[in-house]
Amino acid sequence: MIEFKDAAVVAPDSGVPILEPTSLRLTERHISIIGANGGGKSTLVRLINGLVLPSEGSVEVEGLDVARHGPKVRRIVGFLFTDPSAQLIMPTAIEDVMLSLRRTIDKKDERADAALAALEEIGLGDRADVSVNALSGGQRQLLALAGVLAVTPRILIADEPTTLLDLRWRAHVGSLLRSLPVQLIEVTHDLDSAARAERTLVIDDGGVAFDGSPIEAVAFYRDLMFGRVSRRPSA
Ligand SMILES: Nc1ncnc2c1ncn2[C@@H]1O[C@H](COP(=O)(O)OP(=O)(O)OP(=O)(O)O)[C@@H](O)[C@H]1O
Which terminus in the chain has less CB density within 10 A, N or C? Predict the structure, then answer.
């Protein structure tokens, strides 16, 4: 379970508020997060694995305060970025997954076997020794996902994981993410994908503007974008 307890974020340099004090209990298996650019979606999900720390309040994952137990929390919470280049470091696919496993498996040959198994599971078994640069954008996103999943997180945060992908890869990566045996928190601008979650948060102007059923959330978001509703009561 993920719990936000009045967690707020201000910009470190300017002190400008980025996320207002927010309280949430996130228990559903698949939660989508939508909202306009710059609303605070990435900030909200980064609080869950300690990439951003709250300026006030706290965030807990399975009862662990993220600010105090970062390394433990990051073994529970995997994070997939929009651009796989942000998390692919090694020259070949298998070496990259082996790097993810460096803290969990000591022996190199066992690490290689586990990395190959992780690649096979995700459909990249035949690409193991291929240069990361020779992979397509979709294959690179799958490789980043293989590295995250190799360490068996129970929660997966995916921050716009399909934004850079074409329609076919978007469908493939999207359905793969939804089939994983993890709690999936997905930030997305793809409203069809958002609507497949069990619960959807609309984030706007540094706060939760709507929290509830995906169909209603998507309708609210459209109304918000086209000025038919306003998040804040008018002055
Ligand atoms: N470290 C920081 N210092 C100053 N401002 C920041 C910092 N991090 C985020 N912001 C600002 O906070 C706001 C929310 O950013 P965030 O990336 O969380 O939004 P987002 O909803 O994920 O946007 P997008 O859909 O464009 O990715 C933006 O205006 C951003 O410029």
Answer: C
Mean pLDDT value across the chain: 94
Other CB atoms within 10 A of residue 96 CB: 23
Q: How far is Cα 106 from Cα 108, in angstroms, rounded to an integer?
A: 6
- Element spanning 155, H or E: strand 155-159
Q: For domain 2-225, which CATH number applies: 3.40.50.10940, 3.20.20.10, 3.40.50.720, 3.40.50.300?
A: 3.40.50.300
pLDDT tens for residues 211-231? Answer: 999 999 999 999 999 887 877
Q: How many angstroms does the Cα of residue 83 sit away from the middle of ligand 1?
A: 16
* Ligand 1 atom at shortest distance from the alpha carbon of 46: 18
Helix (H, G, I), strand (E, B) or coil at 78: strand
- Site to probe by mutation for ligand 1, drawn from 42, 159, 190 as the one with most ligand atoms within 8 Å of Cβ, is 42
| Residue pLDDT, tens place only, 67-103 | 999 999 999 999 999 999 988 999 999 999 999 999 8
Closest residue by CA, ligand 1 atom 5: 11
Rounded Cα–Cα distance for residues 89 and 60 (Å): 29
Ligand 1 close to Cβ of residue 37 (< 6 A): yes
- Whose Cα sits closest to atom 16 in ligand 1? 40
